[in-house]
Amino acid sequence: MSSLKAYKYRLYPTKKQAIRLQEVLDRCRELYNAALQERKDAYRMAHLSIGYTQQAAQLPEIKEIRPEYQDIYSQVLQDVLRRGDKAYKAFFRRIKQGEKAGYPRFQGDGRYDSFTYPQSGFSLTEDNRVCLSKIGTIKVKMHRELEGTMKTCTIKREGMHWFVIFTGEIEPELVYHPSGEAIGIDLGLLHFATLSDGSTIENPRYLRKAEQKLKKLQEALSRKKRGSKRRRKAAQLVGKNHRHIRNQRKDFHHKEARKLVNGYGVIVFEKLQPANMSKRPKPKQDEETGQYLPNGASAKAGLNKSIVDAGWGQFQQIVTNKAEWAGSRVLFVSPKYTSQRCSGCGSIAKKELAERWHSCSCGCELDRDHNAAINIKRAGLLLLEKEIQARTEPSGDALLRSPALQG
Ligand SMILES: [Zn+2]
C-alpha cells in the first residue's frame, strides 16, 4: 500500500517563459470550454452523451486545424478532457441523487488556473529546474525535499505567481514489531485456537448461543411445506440469522487477531488444505438460505461443515492484514505430522482424531492441540531461520554455486 503526497514549489519563469505558460493555460482553458460545449450541444440536440474517449479521438484533428495545439504536450491536453469528463460525471451523479446541481461551468479567464502532466513529459534537474516538455526549463525554489516517486506535475498560476505541484508516491515505512516473540497457533473445532504457550481462544458464548438459535430456526424451516409462504418466511429468518452470525464471527476474529498482532512479532499458522478437505464429501448448500446441509456421510460432512463455518481462512487473512501494519511476520507451515509428532522428542506416533491427550514414552504429556501448536511454532521458526540464512549467505558462496559457473 502506498500513499500520494503533494509538494508545491514556487516557479521563477523568465518573462518569455511566463508568456509561454500563460499561452498553454489559455489553450487548455479554450479546449476545456469547447469540450463542455460539445457535450452540451450533443445532449440538447440529439440526447447523445459524449465521453472522454470520443473527445480524445478528436485531438489529432484539432491539432491540424489549430497548429498552436501541436505545441502542447499530448497528455496535458488529454488531462484537460479528463477534467471535463470528471466535472460532467459529478454533475450527473448529483442529479441522480436528487441534489440541486449546476451545469459544469464554462471557465473564464481568471478561473481556469492550472494544467497537468499526468504521467510523463516533466523532470527535475540537479540544479533545481523543472523541465517541461514543449515549454522549457524553468527555475524552481525547492524549499523542502521531494519524497517518493514523482507521479504527476501540475503547473498552477496564483495571481501573478506560478507554482509547480508534484505528487509523490510514498511507500509505507518499514515497521518493526517491538516483540521478537513467536507464537504457534493450532486452529481447531473443540477450541477455536490453541496456542503454543498452552492457552486457548474459545468461541464466544454469544456466538454459540446464536448458532443454537439458528439450528432451531433451521429445524423449523425443514418442517414447513416446500413452496409455501410460511417456508419462504422461515427461510428469510434463517438467512437473516445466518448473516448476523457471520458478522459476529467477523468481529470476534478482528478482536482476537488484534491481540495476537499486538503481542507477537512472529505468528505461525498451519497452511489450510482445501485439497484435503474436498476429498471428503462436499457440503451441500441450501438454495434458499445458503446454509450447509448434512449430506449423508454425516460425521465427515459435519466436520466439513464446522471447518467451513469456523472461518479459519477469514481469521488467517485478518491476522495477515493486521500484521502487515504492525510489522509482525505471519508464517504458514505444512500441517504434516503437527498432531502426530511429539513436541518433546520428535518421534511420530499415530493418533486417532478422538484422542485428546498426547502421551509419549519420552515422558511428554500434554493436550493434543497444545502439542500441535508447539510443533507449528517450531516449524515456523525453522522456516524463518532458513530464510535469514539464505539472505546472509556470503555472495561468493552463492556465486560458486550458481549454475553459470558450474559449466
Ligand atoms: Zn516424545
Question: Which properties best describe this structure?
Answer:
alpha+beta; five-stranded mixed sheet; 11 helices; 16 strands; elongated; binds zinc ion
How does this structure look, described?
With 407 residues, the chain is α+β, with helices and mostly antiparallel strands. The protein has 11 helices and 16 strands. The chain has helices at 15-46, 52-56, 59-65, 74-96, 205-223, 229-263, 274-279, 298-310, 312-326, 368-392, 395-401, and strands at residues 3-12, 114-117, 122-124, 129-132, 136-141, 149-158, 161-170, 182-187, 193-195, 200-201, 266-270, 284-285, 292-293, 329-333, 357-359, 365-367. It has a 7-stranded antiparallel β-sheet. Strand 15 and strand 16 form a beta hairpin. Helix 1 (15-46) crosses helix 4 (74-96), helix 5 (205-223) runs antiparallel to helix 6 (229-263) and helix 6 (229-263) runs parallel beside helix 9. The chain is elongated. The two termini are 42 Å apart. Mean pLDDT is 84; it is low at 275-307 and 396-407. The structure holds zinc ion (ZN). The site of zinc ion has 7 residues, from loops. Zinc ion is lined by residues 342, 344-345, 347, 360, 362, 364.
